[in-house]
Amino acid sequence: MKKIKIDFLAQPTIGMNQSGMKSQLDNLYTHFENDDLLHIHKYNIWEKSSPDIVHYFGMGEGMLQVLKKQKSNGAKIICSPNHWPVDSKVEKLLMKINYKNVIYTNRVTKKFLIDHADSFIVNSESEKKMFSDNLNIEGDRIKVIHNSYGLEKEEIAFGDFRKKYTISKPYALMVGQVGSERKNQKPVLECWQADYDDLYILGGFDNTSYGQKCKRIIDSKSNIHYLGFESNVSILEDAYRNCNLLISPGLIETPSLSAFRALINGAKVCSTDFGGAPREYFGDNVFYFDPYNAKEIARVIAEAIKIKDMKIKFGEFDRFSNTNINKLYKEHYKEILKG
């Protein structure tokens, strides 16, 4: 049987960050590396490629010419946007600018995808509704395939997070780019009390006004520690496995791989409830808050800390296993080629 050739395409800086999008791409690539039907290839600008399908991770990021060329060569285009659409008249107007106007490269790429992608794979039903309502994409072009929770515990070689960072006591964890307003870490830092367990933060740092405000709060509290960016996946996994509490306060999360990893390892999780996506994944197994309400964030964190024994229904997560989720991707690739 002839194999289906699929090029994975992403923004040029994809390899520089251990982002959710990179984790999703790497997970799929590893799973299908020796597949009997699919031949997955990470696109290389120095190589000639004639794929049956281009699976593009992102919805902008300057890959317009590659997408246009492969579309004209007959390839099917699948887009995993990793993008929460905003209902903005200004954004829609800018997307209508002629393709030749490279000032708005990301918006022009987005417009090309909206007009010409054969399929969009989104990660929640709530995201599908946002795409349909705000970007006027027909419902039959949008496929919901939820994110997997990643590798099974027995497939992971755990590092030693505690040893690397000299941690001996119980701890809470927050993961994400410090200084990114979208990650919304400032209200968590502000409400962290002196009698709480130590809070460790993993992620890069944006030297923005918001980032400086976060840094000042971190420096003022002896039980908050910024560790910087951690690229070692085994160390990250060990951090998730051993934390008592993980806090995911982002304004946009679909849902949050770090929260998912901590949850399946038995940690308590406090999560944003924006858009409904986290509830699709986590159900009643986590503590939710409105990410725009600082008082509610403080109250929910305090409640979670008081609870000693969280009853997590692990069986509810079986449908998000790598095996089950990747089957859906394989089926969708075959469906797209059938037309």
UniProtKB/TrEMBL annotation:
Entries under InterPro entries matching the protein: Glyco_trans_1 (IPR001296), Glyco_trans_4-like_N (IPR028098)
Record domain Glycosyltransferase subfamily 4-like N-terminal: where: 44-148
UniProt keyword annotations, A-Z: Transferase
Keyword Transferase: yes
UniProt key word rRNA-binding: no
Pfam families per record: Glyco_transf_4, Glycos_transf_1
Domain Glycosyl transferase family: 162-316
Protein name per UniProt: Glycosyltransferase
